[in-house]
Amino acid sequence: MEPILLIHGYGSEQGTATSQRGAARIYGNLATWLKRTYSSDSVFELDLTRWISLEDGIGLDDVSRAMDAALRGPYSHLMSKTFHVIIHSTGALVVRNWMLKFAGPNQPIRNLIYLAGANFGSGWADLGNNRLARWGRELFTSSEAGTRILNALELGASRTIDLHLSLRGGDASMAARGVREYVIIGSQPAARWFERPIRFAKEDGSDGVVRVSAANLNFCYARFTANSAGQKATVRDVMDLRKLAHLPTDAVYYDRVEESLPGVDGREVVPLAIPYNTAHSGSDYSVVYGSANREYVEPLLQTALETTNINTWRTLARPFADVTAASREESKVRGFTDRLADRGWERPTQYDAHAQVVIRLFDEDERPIDDYDIYFESEPADGHVTAISDLIEHKHRNGVTPNVFMFYLRTEKWDREEEKWKDRFDELKSLTFSIEANEPETDDIQYVPFVLPLDQGAIKKWIRHHTTTVMDVYMRRVPSENVFRIFPA
After folding, report:
1. Which of 149, 202, 366, 437 could hold 447 in an S-S bridge, CB 3.0 to 4.6 Å?
2. Is 142 inside any structural domain?
3. What is the CATH number of the domain that holds 311?
4. Are strands 83-88 and 109-115 parallel, antiparallel or unpaired?
5. Could you tell me which residues are beta bridge partners of residue 5?
6. In angstroms, rounded to a whole number, what is the distance separating the alpha carbons of residues 429 and 407?
7. Distance (Å, rounded) from C-alpha 298 to C-alpha 300?
8. Residue 19: is its pLDDT beyond 50?
């Protein structure tokens, strides 16, 4: 077996860069199992605690650069051949950023396993970055919040999205670089978190810290720019549209000029598995070292680590998905404790599929647009009264880049009476997505509204279970005639 390198996530402060005891506490029995299964001298822990955790001035590039220094210094024996990597949580961004900026053309990683990798962020990052949390750390732990790392972890972090876009396909993709990626994440926060007054600790479709849709690297992407109708639109056209109660669905001023879907045009599908009884952390349920879920997690790790070629890797999406299906079946027969069951909590609802939809708004000169309104209007399918608003469970405007807005949708729902999951998009006949933007500093600039009508097939194509969809919209900026008026002397 080639060497295996373990890389931890944000806030793993148990040790120092010279403390093996700290690394053992971070990884628990994972390192022990790996050494027993393979060999005691093939498992290494890269302890990034001094760089990654709680220093406000340290950013993602700094941590990736520190990783590079370690791999070209104390761990140079790994770089001389090839090795595998297992990461937890924030380690996903560290490794992917290292791959993009530091690894070089002959990078040595082969199997890269994300254990609850926070690829598209975590709701906890915003909580961890607010003033109350910072005060608490300063008063009681004498540490900072790790602001720049938390900014990279915030939902809708634009630089993080750009990182994934840079690695999504073609010669730039991870597979083209020789890396076989795998995502393993639970969808079952520990029961003790359900009584905490924090939504992210007990979200369905999440492991209590990272959403499945945020961990999944099989994201969808689309970029829109103004078409010929949008280029011809005048200020008067825009003002007339804005007087209407609803933007007409035929007012399509933008075309999709770029798209990227997993499994299409050579883009590889990353195997994703949701093992049963698995949460982000905790001695019983942690995806890293939980004692109650090794029978689910360890076979996935072993399959990934022992994959030796790209063709075998391409066949693993289905067996990994089968693990998810088995977990959902098991959730049907395993309930909550009586105390939580009496309050209406059901185990299967934790496995309801969700999706994240992230919208980034720019003007045609690629400047961010911060003043906008986003609307969803839907038509129910026959026999239903469902509206798209019934699916939206959380909304978030990014604090660092306010031109980025994120919606969290429950795309499947457990039906107790029929004892099965129902696709919520089957309840929608169509969906119209529209955006109106404003230039707050002047009345002489208008933005051509964005309207995107979707039928049921298009909805399912672009908003997928357990998946993040990113939409970049470049809105046409239209100046009024006053901007061009020349007054005689």
Report:
1. 437
2. yes
3. 3.40.50
4. parallel
5. 44, 85
6. 20
7. 5
8. no
For 396, the domain range is: 220-261+352-483
Q: Which residue has the tokens 């809105």?
A: 475
Q: What amino acid occupies position 419?
A: E
Asked whether residue 228 falls in the same domain as residue 204, the answer is no
Q: DSSP code of 448?
A: P
Q: 288, 308, 341 — which closes off a domain? A: 341
Q: Looking at the structure, tell me whether residues 198 and 241 fall in a common domain.
A: no
Place 189 in a pLDDT band, splitting at 50, 70 and 90. Answer: confident
The distance in angstroms from the start CA to the end CA of the chain is 83
| Domain assignment present for 75 | yes
Q: Could you tell me how many helices (H) and strands (E) the chain has, helices first?
A: 18, 19
Residues 6+ apart with CB under 8 A from 4: 34, 38, 42, 43, 44, 83, 84, 85, 86, 305
Does the pLDDT value for residue 139 go beyond 50?
A: no
Tell me, yes or no, whether 64 and 196 share the same domain: yes
Three-state secondary-structure class, residue 408: strand
pLDDT at 29: 85
Identify residue 24 by its one-letter amino acid code.
A
347: CB partners within 8 A, 6+ apart: 188, 331, 332, 334, 335, 336
Residues 6+ apart with CB under 8 A from 312: none
Q: 114 near 183, Cβ under 8 Å?
A: yes
Of 129, 120, 176, give the one whose Cα is nearest residue 149: 129
243 within a domain of the structure (yes/no): yes
Pairing mode of beta strands 445-447, 412-415 = unpaired
| Same domain for 141 and 42 | yes
Same domain, 167 and 284: yes
Residue 238 sits in the same domain as residue 356: yes
Token reading at 467: 């998946």
Same domain for 312 and 403, yes or no, is: no
All residues at 6 or more sequence positions from 459 whose CB lies less than 8 Å from its CB, including other chains: 425, 428, 430, 431
Residue-wise pLDDT for 266-324, tens only, equals 899 999 999 999 999 888 899 998 989 999 999 999 999 999 999 999 999 999 999 99
Percentage of the residues of the chain whose pLDDT score is greater than 70: 89
Q: Which of 280, 310, 341 finishes a domain?
A: 341
Q: Give me the number of domains the chain comprises.
A: 2
Q: Which residues contact 457 (CB under 8 A, 6 or more apart)?
A: none
DSSP notation for 24-87: HHHHTHHHHHHHHHS-TTSEEEE--HHHHSS-TT--HHHHHHHHHHHHTTTTHHHHTS-EEEEE
pLDDT in tens, 20-42: 444 556 788 898 899 999 988 89
Question: What pLDDT does 305 receive?
Answer: 98
